[in-house]
Amino acid sequence: MMKTVIMAGGKGTRVAAVRSDLPKPMIPVCGKPILEWQIENLKASGLTDVVLVIGHLGEVIKDYFGDGSRWDVKISYFIETQPLGTAGALFRMPELQEDFLLMSGDVMLDVDFNRFISFHKEHNALASLTVHPNNHPFDSSLIVMETLPARDGGMPLHTNRVVKWLNQEEERIYYRNIVNAGIEMISPRLLEDARAKLPSLDKVDLDRDVLKPAIASRKIYAYETSEYIKDMGTPERLIEVESDLLSGKIAAHNLSVKQKAVFLDRDGTINKTSGFLTDINDFELIEGAAEAIKRINKFGYLAVVVTNQPVIARGECSFEQLQEIHNKMETLLGMEGAFIDGLFLCPHHTDRGFEGERIEYKIDCECRKPKAGLFIQAQKTLNIDLSQSYMVGDSAIDIKAAENAGCKKAFLIETNRENALLGVVNEILK
């Protein structure tokens, strides 16, 4: 049976103002310790063999959970008599002979772990990292994944292989809002490789000393998810999590559950446009767009961009340039506490006669709006219930596409109008 190791020994200095007498994983959320919520989530996915790594005030944890029989799980303990860092204990646990799930005991979550485990096995990874967008990417570690160039009229291939790890202190310009969520699947092979290279096992940092150096192996992968995962590091985030729990938002985002989405056109709806956008310097958010997306995030809908980008077929913009534009969009949104859960684009266009056009993309496809292809792609990727989802765009093509996809309702807004998107989102959420 697969083991789950939960690092539950942290002091939680930033959140200590809430309960300084408790270890961080025991701070109650709606009357129940964070760690208990985690164990119940694991149990729901069939993960019942749990090892708790405890240290600071560890007896509080041990007295509360015991052997785990109260939750119908098996709990054992590794006691740190001195701080070993975020990974030191792993090298001292002989029972970790097979791939295991690793997570921090201070994260509120509701995750379909079986999806994550399947991803890890399919990629035969040394480690798989759970990654997601969040509303504070500026103070989070960002993960960059490999993208292979488009071939033969196809789309760029996203391999999910991790190629770069950007800590918050490292220089960033424009980036995808893809944040390390602190939940990993680990192979013992990774620990063996790291052990041979580490000068000491006395205090080992998982990210800096184990995972980041292993990126060069090309066997570290990132599992993207829109599920609810939030670090409980501050009193403010604790308040936010309690609100999300009471509203049902946390459970609703588990990918075993059908998701509700607000689909958004890009040009004229999120960013200003005066024609086809091909230069990153011309990208500018419309006033109120970030606040609208922030509200979509807050109220439990997925924010999903669906956009026709004929600039690819016309030869006016490369996929690489387009990705940089989208990176800028995600960066600007993140600076205002907003994020998108997915972006789906159509690069095709049937009209010919443009200088530099790419013939291989001059096809009558199924993804170009007003056809429903982009919505279907999003539905499959994010488990969306289209009948409970909305569309907002600035053209009749957007409205027709939503109708063809079977969306609940579509809203037409004026191109480039300030706060137009915010007004519609407020109507959807009222």
Topology:
Blueprint: E1 3-7, E2 28-29, E3 32-33, H1 34-44, E4 49-54, H2 58-65, E5 74-79, E6 100-104, E7 107-110, H3 113-123, E8 127-132, E9 142-148, E10 157-166, E11 179-186, H4 188-197, H5 206-214, E12 220-224, E13 228-231, H6 235-247, H7 249-252, E14 261-264, H8 289-298, E15 302-308, H9 319-335, E16 342-346, H10 373-382, E17 390-393, H11 396-405, E18 409-412, H12 420-429
Parallel strand pairs: 1-4, 1-6, 4-5, 8-12, 14-15, 14-17, 15-16, 17-18
Antiparallel strand pairs: 2-3, 6-11, 7-13, 8-11, 9-10
Helix pairs in contact: 8-12
Radius of gyration: 23 Å
CATH topology of the largest domain: Spore Coat Polysaccharide Biosynthesis Protein SpsA, Chain A
Structural class based on helices, strands and sheet pairing: alpha/beta
Largest sheet composition: 7 strands, mixed
Tally the structural domains: 2
Order of helices and strands: EEEHEHEEEHEEEEHHEEHHEHEHEHEHEH
The backbone outline, from C-alpha atoms, is globular
What does this structure look like?
It contains twelve helices and 18 strands. The protein has helices at residues 34-44, 58-65, 113-123, 188-197, 206-214, 235-247, 249-252, 289-298, 319-335, 373-382, 396-405, 420-429; strands at 3-7, 28-29, 32-33, 49-54, 74-79, 100-104, 107-110, 127-132, 142-148, 157-166, 179-186, 220-224, 228-231, 261-264, 302-308, 342-346, 390-393, 409-412. A seven-stranded mixed sheet has the order 5-4-1-6-11-8-12, sandwiched between helices. Helix 11 links the parallel strand 17 (390-393) and strand 18 (409-412). Helix 8 (289-298) packs parallel to helix 12 (420-429).
